[in-house]
Every structure is written in structure tokens, then in C-alpha cells.
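ok so I'm stuck.
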Amino acid sequence: MKQHFSGVLNGFVGLVLALQVMYPVHDASAMTASAQDVHEIADICMYSQRVLKDYALIGMKVTYHDPAADLIKNTKVIDQYITNLKNHHLKKRLDDEIHELEGLWKKVKPKLLANPTQKHMPQLRREVEIFSHRCEKLAEDLAEDSKIEGEHNMVLIAELGMNSQRLAALYMMKAWGVADDNYYEEVQKIVDEYEKIYRTLMKASDKFVSPEIKTKLKSTQKHFQAFEFMATSESGRFVPTMVEKNSSKIFHEIRKLLKLEQELIE
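replied:
not stuck anymore, here's the structure
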């Protein structure tokens, strides 16, 4: 009798496990991504390229805006945002992505905070690019999970900010003498992507990208075009301080736009 009961119990447990694999049970405690979650990951994406730019500025001994202090402060911002996202207990697949992003960040952060060298800059940029692309993917996934209509536009606005900082970082590498031979091709690719996203946002319904946001986007676009002119110049003369001033202005304006967009769609 005991053996029969044990056999039935084992069979039942096996059936339950099989059904869980075939039909996963929804985690009732998992939270749906919020607009704040998307805002925070969007900020991480922008900051990821900004810290790379700071690294190059420190290496070139440019002190405008105190890049050394900015680098420390900005890495702490990324740390806090990642902690926030981990503590929000989202769906497992999103939590997995967050932990993967955290793992990438733990590898790159010490290198960013180390003494900058021209030798290590190209490899560091490759690692930051991997982190940024994973960040973009997570931002899209969080926006989709939020089920908030128009949330994708917040991701697009953040991508404008990220590309402006990516262009600044690439420019600083060129000024420092460590850019790849295909520098101008990379610059053009970033510019084309920025322009494409800008046009998409300007064509979006006013319901999801308000006239106020569009007006501010036009202003930001003018700053980017001035920045683009400097980045594409083949004169051989570099103005890192001016580019830092311009790219920082764009960065802070985009962050204000993210806040306006969050308020609009929530």
C-alpha cells in the first residue's frame, strides 16, 4: 500500500512539474513596469555615454565642468538607478535583464574610475557600447511592459540624449588621439540616427509628444547641429571645452524633456 501511494505521489509531483514547464504560473507578486522605471533606465542609457566622455576629458586634463567630480557623481547615479530597478520586483524576464545589465556595469565601472589612459580608451569604449545597447533593449522592454500608451516616445527622447553624449565621447577620443580610423563614418552614423529619431518625435501625435516638448526639441536640435558641425570638421583643430559645454547643455535639456514626457503620458 505504501509503495502504491509513493508511486502515485511521485507521479503527481512529476505531472505538476511538467505542467509548470508547459504552462508557467504567473508571478502574482511581480510589478508591471512604471513610467518611472522607464525614466530611470532612460537616464542610465544617457549617463553611460556621458561617463565615457568624462573619462576622456580627465585623460586630456580638461578641467571645465570638473569632469573628475562629474564622473564620480554620475557613476553613483547609475548605481542608484540600477538598485531602484532591482528593488521594484518586476517580471522575471525583466529582472533577469536588469541583473545582466548590473553585471556589465560592475565590469566597466572600475575601469571608468581608474586613471585614464589612451591605451585603455578604445577597449573601454567597446565595453561601454555593449552596456549602452543592453540598456536600450531593457528600456524598450520596460516601455512595452508598462502598457502605457506613448511610453516608447520617452525611450526615443532618451536615445537623442544618449547619441549626443556618444558623439561627444567619440569627439573627445579623436581630440585625444585615440579614435578609430573610421571616425567620420561613425560620426555620420550617430548623426543620421539622431536626425531619424528627431523626425519621428516631431511627427508624433501631440497627444504623446506635446507642442511644448516639440518646441523644446527644436531648440535642442539647433544645439546639436552646432555640435555636429564641430564633430564633422576635418580642420585638425579641436575644441573639447566648447564641445563639453554644448553636449552638456543638450544633456540637461533632454533630461528636462524626459520629465515633461513622463508627466504627459502618466
